[in-house]
Every structure is written in C-alpha cells, then in structure tokens.
Amino acid sequence: MNRFLLLLGVLLxxxxxxxxxxxxxxxxxxANGLELKLGPDQGGSGMGKTDTTLSLVNRGSAPCRxxxxxxxxxxxxxxAPLGRPAVREGGLGPVVTLAPRGGAALAPMLTVNxxxxxxxxxxxxxxxxxxxxxxxxxxGPGDPVRNTVFLPMDSMLTCAKDVGEPRLRIRSLIPG
Length: 176
Fold this sequence. Notes:
The radius of gyration is 22 Å and the shape is elongated. The protein is mainly β. It is 10% helix and 38% strand.
C-alpha cells in the first residue's frame, strides 16, 4: 500500500509539472579560478625543516573540487626546475569541495632547509618560487596546460644540485 501511495504521489507531481530538483555536478578546479598562498607553519618546524601549508582558495562563483596530491617543484631564477619534485606522503585522501568565493583546500608540506646538506653537494642558490600542478580527477597529475600555477617566493633558498634525497614532502589535500 505504501509503495502504491508513493508511486501515485510521484505520478501526480509529474503530471502537475513539478519536476524533481536536479543537482548540477561540481567541476574539478582549474588553476585560473584559484588563488595559491603559502600558509601557516604547522608547528612541526625545527631541526632544519620547515613545516608549512600550501593553501588553494576558490575565487570563482561556483564550487569546484580537488583530490589527491599537488605536484610541487622548486624553480630557479632561470625558470628551470631545481632538485626533485616533492615526494608524496600518506594516502590519496577524500575529494575536497571548495565553496565559491573563499572555500579552501590545504596541502601540508615539509621542506628540508638547504643548510642541512653539505654545501658541495647542495650548492645553495636563490630560488624564484614553486611551480605547482593541480591533481587530475583520479588524484594523479592533472593537465599541465590548464592546471599549473606558480607561487613566487622572494627570499627562497634552495639547492642547485640534486642532493640525493628530496627536499620537499607533501601530503594529500584536505579541507581548509
């Protein structure tokens, strides 16, 4: 009897022109709709390491979503990548939906300071900033043309040479 009444109600609503509300799918975030900021220290800095956060803020008028890891590279003064890309730590994480006009996702990042390496191995130089590739829908690297952002860093020091281990470690995006 209850199924009959439910079916009858749906038929009556359909016949009266009242349609069920449809929810539009939320698109994946594109770099041109996001503001990238270097966030606060996460409290784990010390012993030659800096524990910080990369913050992605939605500046668009519609929600968007992200999942997975940012691909982060240090960039030298000549726009060439320096050292190894950030190593991913932890699991892929959930899909993070960024609300329009201010919703954020955070990526915790640990940086080993150049002074922790032998200067002959490192060859400390000023860097220009970080080149960041947003993840694609599967959580892996996204489209480099559509989803690359640059974060300038005026006082950045980095290693010009590969020191044999990564200087950057990044965790999966989390809601901000």
